[in-house]
Amino acid sequence: MSIYSVIFITLIAALLVSFSQILFKRGLSEKLHTRHDMLRLAKNKRVIGGIAIYLVSFVIYLYALSAADLSFVYPTFAASFIFIAVLSALFLKEKFGIMRILGVVLIFLGIAIVAATT
């Protein structure tokens, strides 16, 4: 498998895991305080959907990992931090200030450096 295919597959896994995190957050209407609160999550459609997407992402990630070195795939998967920042701003209306933008840029540069070394 070409390195570009591995990058693409890994980015798909990272994007899916990011969407699952958005569903997890949306499924939590309040803080969890008791066991009952946690058990109630088992019936929450957003949380269940998030788990399903997370599992699909996991399988895709394992496929990418089977085709390339962990030291390449895992840093590429760090794109999930970028996706989370953007998706959180879009779907959860979280603030996206200059420091977060700088952090996203630094993560992107780190991924680019790792990709360039392969």
Task: Please give a structural write-up.
This protein has one domain. The protein is mostly helical and 118 residues long. The radius of gyration is 16 Å and the shape is flat. The mean pLDDT is 90. Helix 1 packs antiparallel against helix 3, helix 1 runs parallel beside helix 5 and helix 5 runs antiparallel to helix 6. It is built from 6 helices and no strands. It is 80% helix and 0% strand.
Could you list some keywords that capture this structure?
118 residues, mainly alpha, 6 helices, 80% helix
Output mean pLDDT: 90
- Put simply, the count of helices is 6
Structural class: mainly alpha
Shape: flat
If you compute it from the alpha carbons, what radius of gyration comes out, rounded to the nearest whole angstrom?
A: 16 Å
| Number of DSSP strand runs | 0
State the domain count. Answer: 1
Helix and strand arrangement:
Layout: H1 3-27, H2 35-40, H3 45-67, H4 70-77, H5 79-91, H6 98-116
